[in-house]
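Sequence in, structure out. Go.
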Amino acid sequence: MQLEFFPSRTLTMYLSRLFVTRIIAVLLMLVLVLQMLDLLGESGNILAYPGNGEAQLFHYVSLRMPQLVARFLPYSVLLATIITLATLNQNSEVIAMKSAGLSAHQVLAPLVLTALVTALLSFAFNERIVTRATATLDAWESVDYGPMPRDSGVRSNVYLSDGRDILVAATLVGQGTDMVMNQVTYYRRDDQGMIVEQLRAPRATYSAAGWRLEGPEKFAVAGTRESRLASATVAAGITPARIRISSVDPDAQDIIELSRSIDAMKVAGRRTSELEAAWWHKISGPLSSVLMPLLGAVAAFGLARSGQLLIRAVIGMALGFAYFVVDNAALAMGNFGGYPPIVAAWSPFLLFAFIGETVLIRTEE
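Output:
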């Protein structure tokens, strides 16, 4: 019986149902509170654009809420683990399961299975919904919550250099030679790096000779002269292929698209360690939910009447939050090149899996 992780189907369903309801309840509580606070802080910027109203506020919520769900789902699993196990311990249900011959791992197995299903759903949700919402929200913010082109390939805050000169665009849509830039600014600089000329245009399209600015306003620093041109072609060295590898946001790309971006940057000889760490973290991030029952298991065992239940719950919570701190630190080290990408993404997971298992064995078995 000790080698069977699910000796009772009824018990498995009972524990899983308890765990799922608490995950949903905690997640709803966190997301609703955080969404309300976020909306209060951002509503002024949204409504500042002429014509925006309630519809734009609801649109912002629809784009922001998937990000909050993705970010705080592992926290919700951690808190739901502690609530579930502490309740079972306080009601002596853990003692009843132990008296029936179940080991600590068998008690936790239904929770781990539920967390694994949650991790798989989280991965699919991140890849199909969160990435698109992030790309759309970034592009919308870049135009100050004004009208935005309806295009799935929208990129925001494009910053490119052509030798000494600089080309900046609020948004970029399209692919290949069909790319279109909006709210474009071109800075022409001299040999000392000083700006000598500035061109501003609402729109720019690509041609073989460079980027054609439509109706640009020209400002010459020498003499502080302003003029309006019918058109101007600039930045011949900035090609669509170069743009593709210069504005990669891993949070706005799914794992397949990010793989292609990494390959393109490698071919161009660009550094890809940050993107590779983000690629691995797209897998290890959702999978962190599986760790939460193990890290919070300390709240399940030990006599509730001993008065240490609260202390055990705090220890489980501390272990869980320590994981998120170490995970963020490891990713930062990977971005700076201190860790290899795969180590930056997976070492916190493996470390805390070992810590959680050690704590469980030493405190119970």
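Check: Residues 9-48 form the longest helix (40 residues). Strands lie at 155-162, 165-173, 180-189, 195-207, 210-214, 217-220, 225-228, 231-234.
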